[in-house]
Amino acid sequence: MKRDLLTIRDLTKDEILALIDRALEIKKAGRNAKRPFAGYALGLMFDKASTRTRISFETAMFRLGGQTLFLSRGDTQLSRNEPIRDTARVLARYLDAIAIRTFSQDFVEKMAQWAEIPVINALTDQYHPCQILSDIVTVKEKRGSLNNMKVAWIGDGNNVAHSWINAAGILGFELALACPPDYHPSPDVLKGSGKNIELVEDPADAARGADVINTDVWTSMGQDAERDKRLRDFKGFQLNRSLLELCKPDVLVMHCLPAHRGEEISDDVLEGSNSVVFDQAENKMHLHQALLEKLLSER
Ligand code: CP
Ligand code: NVA
Fold first, then answer.
1. Same domain assignment for residues 113 and 155
2. Which of 99, 216, 257, 266 could form a disulfide with 120 if both were Cys (CB 3.0 to 4.6 A apart)?
3. Atom 3, ligand 2: residue with shortest CA distance
4. What are the angstrom distances between the C-alpha of 201 and each of 177, 220, 236, 237, 248?
C-alpha cells in the first residue's frame, strides 16, 4: 500500500528512528550506494522557491538510479481549473512518487487522497516535515543520541516550528518555544501535547541549558506584505551571542536556511563554531534518499 508523508505524524517513532539511521548509513556509503530505482520517476511540483529541498530531492533520486520531473503548476491544467482529483489520478499513471511544495496543506492532502502514489510534503504554510527529519539526522550525527535533549525554538511559531512540535510529540524530547505573542504555534498543532513541549515568553528561558537551538526567518514565503510589521514584532527574538551563552557550551545552532543575518540570527552565531547549518543542508539529501527508498519500496 502506498504511504504519504504529509506531516511527521504519518510516521511512527520506530520508523523515524530507522529513517534517521538509514540516512546516516547512506551518507557513509556516499556514491557507492546501490541504485535500485532505475526507471522510477519522482515528480516535483513546487509553487514556492527552493534551493535546498528541490535540489536535494533531485540528487537523492539520481543517486537511487531514478529521475525527477519538475512540474510547474502554471504550466499544467491545474492553472486552468482541472480538478485536483483528475490531475492526481493522471500523474499517478506516469510517476512513482511526487513531492509538493505549496501554500495550503489541503492541496497536498487532496493530492494524497486521489493519487495512488506516495505524496511527500516538501513544505506547506502549515508544515515542513522533511526539514525536521533531516535536522534530526544532523542532531543524531553530532550528538550520537537523541536522549536527554532540550531543543529551543526562538522566533516564529511557523511551519518549521510546527514540524518540530510534531517530532517532539512522537520522540519525546524536551522542546521549549519562545515566540512573540501574536506568533505562537497553531493551537491545533499543540493540541494534546505533553509536558515535554513548553511555550515560554522570554527567549532566555527557552535557551537556558539547551542542547540544540533553532530559529527560522521571521517572514516566511507568502507573508512578504507583513515584513515591516514582523520586523517590529520580532524585536528581542534574535538568536545572538547573549542567547547562545545561556545554552550548553556544545549547543548545536540550527537554521533550515535561507537565513537573514541581522534579523532572526546574528552573523557571528550563524558563522560560529556551534553552527551546523551546512550539515543540515547536506543531510537533507541523505534523508530524502532514505525516505524515497522507504516509500518507493513499500509501494
Ligand atoms: N530549508 C529549505 O527548505 O530550503 P529551501 O527553501 O531552499 O528548499
Ligand atoms: N518558514 C520558511 C521556511 C523556508 C525553508 C518559509 O516557509 O518560507
1. no
2. 99
3. 220
4. 8, 21, 11, 10, 20
**Is the domain of 248 the same as that of 226?**
yes
Cα of 54 from ligand 1 centre, angstroms: 8
Element housing 253 (H / E): strand 252-255
Task: Please report where in the chains the cell 510529540 appears, as a residue.
Answer: 169
Domain membership of residue 81 as a residue range: 8-128+283-298
- Which residues line ligand 1 at a C-beta cut-off of 6 Å? 50-54, 123, 131, 256-257
In a domain, 45, yes or no: yes
CA atoms within 13 A on the CB side of 223: 17
pTM value is: 0.98
How many DSSP H helices and E strands does the chain contain? 12, 9
Distance 264 CA to ligand 2 centre (A): 13
Task: Give me ligand 2 centre to Cα 208, in Å.
Answer: 25
Please tell me the distance between residue 195's alpha carbon and the centre of ligand 1 in angstroms.
30
> Cβ of 284: how many Cβ atoms within 10 Å?
26
Ligand 1 pocket mutation pick from 45, 48, 51, 137 by most atoms within 8 angstroms of CB: 51
Which atom of ligand 2 lies at the shortest distance from residue 156's CA?
1
Per-residue pLDDT in tens (0 to 9) along the chain, 299 residues? 899 999 999 999 999 999 999 999 999 998 877 889 999 999 999 999 999 999 999 999 999 999 999 999 899 999 999 999 999 999 999 999 999 999 999 999 999 999 999 999 999 999 999 999 999 999 999 999 999 999 999 999 999 999 999 999 999 999 999 999 999 999 999 999 999 999 999 999 999 999 999 999 999 999 999 999 999 999 999 999 999 999 999 999 999 999 999 999 999 999 999 999 999 999 999 999 999 999 999 98
